[in-house]
Amino acid sequence: MTQVIDYSVALGGNLPSALGGPAETLRAAVSILHSYQDITITALSRFHRTSAFPPGSGPDFVNATLTLQSMLVPEAMLARLHEVEAELGRRREDGGRWQARPVDLDLIAAGDRVLPDESVQQAWRALAPGDQARRAPEALILPHPRMQDRDFVLAPLAEIAPGWRHPLIGRTVAEMLGDLRNKT
């Protein structure tokens, strides 16, 4: 039986597209997602300006998060996000991980689902930073294995879903953001 899934999606971009700068491109991504009849956007954060990661790797990013509901399974939702990226000029084959790009739509969470399973999610969450830059998973991993390490994901997500609790870490978005900021 198919059920409605609550999704969290991170949006980012730091290069212009045919539509203009990163903020215009992200607004277009939200508009495209809103146009789909099988997706209901439930909240959108403010747009945040953040430094590129790793430092010096490109222009500043514009980042935001949104929450949405859909009956699409997580793999289909990820495919839909990739379609929107392509429509807005993102070519995934053009660069490696963490490269400058006009738009990036990352599936952060699908309710309290852990995909593909707890051990794989934990292994990717524990991956050393150097390996994170070189390796990409073959299957969808949820929650996003590095969300708890990324202020540019947690700060906007805390605006719209501060109480969402990571099913393995056991911390809310607001708590993970506080933990991260206390480390620095």
Detailed description of the structure:
The protein starts with a strand and ends with a helix. The protein has one domain: 7,8-Dihydro-6-hydroxymethylpterin-pyrophosphokinase HPPK (Alpha-Beta Plaits, 2-Layer Sandwich), CATH 3.30.70.560. It is of the alpha+beta class. Strands 1, 2, 3, 4 and 5 form a 5-stranded antiparallel β-sheet that branches. Helices cover 34% and strands 19% of the residues. It has helices at 22-35, 74-87, 118-125, 129-134, 151-160, 173-183; strands spanning 5-13, 39-44, 48-50, 61-70, 104-110.
The total beta strand count reads 5
User: Into how many domains do the coordinates divide?
Assistant: 1
The unreliable regions are none
Biggest sheet architecture: 5 strands, antiparallel
Secondary-structure-derived class: alpha+beta
CATH class call: Alpha Beta
SS strand fraction: 15-25%
- Summarize model confidence as the mean pLDDT: 92
User: What distance lies between the first and last C-alpha atoms, to the nearest angstrom?
Assistant: 45 Å
The quaternary state of the protein chains shown equals: single chain
In CATH terms, what is the architecture?
2-Layer Sandwich
Please give the count of helices: 6
Spell out the helices and strands N to C: EHEEEHEHHHH
- Rg over alpha carbons: 15 Å
Q: What percent of residues adopt helix (DSSP H or I)?
A: 25-40%
Corresponding CATH superfamily: 7,8-Dihydro-6-hydroxymethylpterin-pyrophosphokinase HPPK
Q: Remind me, CATH topology?
A: Alpha-Beta Plaits
What is the global morphology? globular
